[in-house]
Structure formats: structure tokens, C-alpha cells
Write a structure and sequence with these properties.
about 130 residues, mainly alpha, about 30% helix, about 10% strand
Length: about 130
């Protein structure tokens, strides 16, 4: 009986721990997103630094294309401490200005990702912006 109570207690503790594990997912094109930015058909964005930043060099003969990133304030300045989080150590990185991302990229991204029916994705339950 004691084994049953211990097992039940452990199961209850594990399930309550899982219930408390809540995460939020923010994707590219949303205001709170930090990470790689797919420039695609957008014009050249204003950058924080004119030259790409490379933390770790790559082997001779290996060419890695540059990526564009939006990062929180201070991450670009201390890129050597943060590049691992973004999977971009050893890669040329251009940091886009935050204002360009918010004012140009987010609205343009939203317009480009409209369903063929003309309704925006992600509203659910028939809600629209009208």
C-alpha cells in the first residue's frame, strides 16, 4: 500500500510540474521576435553596423552566406556572448535596426502571409480584422 501511495504522489507531482510548464511561441514577423530575419523581397534594411560581425572564423575554403538578425539591445554589442543562442557563431551576421523591423518588416510580412482567401492566418474561430 505504501508503494502505491508513493507512486501516486510522484505521478501527481510530475503532472502538476508539467501543467506549470507554460511556454509562449513567437514567430518571425511578430513584434516580440528575435532571431534570423528573412529579407526575401524586402529592400536592403538599415543596419546597426555597416559590416557583418563574425565571432568565430570558419575553415579556409568554407563560405557561409551572411544572415540578417534582429536581436535585443546589447546582444549585437556583445555578440560573442550571444551568438550560440541564435546558432550563428562562425557566420557573417548583419543586425537590422529595431525600428525597421517594427515599422517595415512586420507589416510587410503580415501582408505577404495572407491566405489566398484574403483572410489573415492565425485569427481562428472566424474572427477577422474588419
Amino acid at each position: 500500500m505504501n508503494r502505491f501511495l508513493i507512486a501516486a504522489g510522484l505521478a501527481l507531482a510530475a503532472s502538476s510540474a508539467l501543467a506549470a510548464d507554460v511556454s509562449v511561441s513567437i514567430t518571425m514577423g511578430q513584434p516580440g521576435y528575435y532571431g534570423r530575419v528573412d529579407i526575401g523581397g524586402f529592400p536592403q534594411p538599415p543596419l546597426i553596423y555597416a559590416e557583418p560581425v563574425i565571432v568565430h572564423s570558419v575553415p579556409a575554403g568554407v563560405v557561409r552566406p551572411p544572415v540578417y538578425m534582429r536581436v535585443p539591445p546589447g546582444h549585437a554589442k556583445n555578440w560573442d556572448k550571444h551568438c550560440r543562442k541564435y546558432g550563428a557563431c562562425g557566420q557573417p551576421v548583419y543586425f537590422v535596426q529595431d525600428r525597421w523591423y517594427s515599422d517595415t518588416y512586420v507589416p510587410g510580412y503580415a501582408k505577404r502571409h495572407v491566405k489566398k482567401s484574403g483572410k489573415k492566418q492565425g485569427k481562428g474561430k472566424g474572427h477577422s480584422d474588419d
